[in-house]
Amino acid sequence: MATSLIKGQNYMVSPCMFGLEEAKTDIERFYALYNTHVEAVKYGVEVDYDGVKEVNIEIPADAKSIPLTSYNIFNDLVINVKNNSKNFYLFSLTQPTDSAYISKKVIDGGDFTNVKGLRSGQHLVILQDDNLWVDKRQGHEYGHTRKDLLYVVDGKAVNKPIMPYNTKETKPNVRICPVTDEVKVISGITINRVKDSKYKTYCFDIQKQYNVELCDVVINTPESNLTADAAIRINDCAKVQIDHVKINGTYSRTDYYGYGISMNNVWKSEILYLNSRSNWGIFGTNNINDAILDHCDINRYDIHCYGRNVTIRNCKFNNLYNQFSSVYGTVLFEKCVFNNHVPVLLESSYNACTGFELKFNDCVFNINNKCNYLVDARYLTDIRNSRPEVATKNLPNITMTKSTINLLEPVKEYYMFHF
Fold first, then answer.
1. Which of 145, 216, 272, 402 is placed for a possible disulfide with 243 were both Cys, Cβ 3.0 to 4.6 Å?
2. pTM of the model as a whole
């Protein structure tokens, strides 16, 4: 039946058409889902999960990620996934890119009408500066590569890079891909990562997309010895909304990283009603331009390195810190509550102390002796980065209005900046 579908017609395919009900093993059930989605992508139709309530699957050794279509409504499906094969992304939404040459001047000017392939239609221009932004992160064996993303419509960029590219030091590496403004939806699914799995099943890999909505998603992770999680990975994307997502645990420890949401090179992200609990910070992000968080209950939001403009409203932060370095523009907290939580930690290991506006409006700080500072500036050294953009040391300008500091225990001092 499925092979008779014609692309563009109003049909759906169901896992029941690809052997889900007859499957005898969890691996066979994985392939039923995989083959259904491959067929849906091939013919440009939706997957119908009506009547499919809960599925147990196991990741086979030769598994490929299940490809997503533009419209993925899972109808409150519960997937229990066991993985003893390899670290693996369960679902993916991605596309290839083409390399292009674009001058530094044109990148900053935003007029791409003379660039072949960008004169008409909608495109993402993915920028990578091959000259390191930070030569070496202290205590680590790597530096930082800055990336930017431009959304181009009929040859004109809608946005700008976080920082200019038309400098002597910049070595732009450019890739482009076509996009549409059609919303790509992933909705209504619970993923339970089964206990005693030997390998990590990451849940969603979203790359090189414009206008994505990830909503009504629950990810449950058992206690485990596994670490270095990236349950949801979003790279090289623009206009991303995460709405009513709940992440209960990640593959991490309190002393070793693992993220619920990993983001790199994202312009215009909006995180709404995110609720999460994890051993490590729930976010791990780099190269973030224009981010909004609203009505979230989390333990950390961060931009490890290189970002601009963050607005956080009506959020609760608990028992950790929010982390930033090489950030520009404005970081605004409005009507937020900080429970034993450091509002801002300037991550000193990148040695990229850029100036920005840090604003608190109508916030509540419930503090103890372990978080008795507004900004943890960590360590300032006389080591200079080679990039002139991050060579000098700066601290943010702080503005605080209509805010309340509650002492949960006797606290002798409260610092604006702690070194």
1. 272
2. 0.96
DSSP class per residue in 17-64: GGTTTT--SHHHHHHHHHHHHHHHHHHT-EE--TT--EEEEE--TT--
Ranges of beta strands (E only) in 85-225 are: 88-93, 98-100, 122-129, 147-153, 156-157, 172-179, 184-193, 201-207, 210-220
Measured in whole angstroms, the distance separating CA 61 from the mean position of its chain's CA atoms is 27
Under 8 Å between Cβ of 408 and 366:
yes
Rounded to the nearest angstrom, the gap between the alpha carbon of residue 186 and the centroid of all alpha carbons in its chain is: 15
Percent helix, strand and coil across the chain, each to the nearest 5: 10, 45, 45
**Block residue for tokens 């994505």:** 212
In 394-418, which positions are buried (b, 16+ CB within 10 angstroms) versus exposed (e)?
A: ebbeeebeebeeeeeeeeeeeeeeb
Q: Provide mean pLDDT across the span 155-176.
A: 98
CA-based nearest residue to 284, from 315, 247, 314, 316: 247
Residue 6 is predicted with a pLDDT of 44
- Of 409 and 24, the one with more pLDDT: 24
Instruction: Say if CB 211 and CB 239 are below 8 A apart.
Output: yes
Q: Is residue 382 very low, low, confident or very high in pLDDT (cuts 50, 70, 90)? A: confident
3-state secondary structure of 388: helix
Amino acid of residue 81:
V
- The encoded tokens of residue 233 equal 């990975």
Residues with Cβ within 8 Å of 167's Cβ and at least 6 positions away in sequence, in order, are: 104, 388, 389
With 0-12 / 13-18 / 19 or more C-beta atoms within 10 angstroms meaning exposed / middle / buried, residue 151 is buried
Average pLDDT of the chain is 95
pLDDT at 17: 96
pLDDT of residue 10: 53
CA 27, chain centre distance (Å): 29
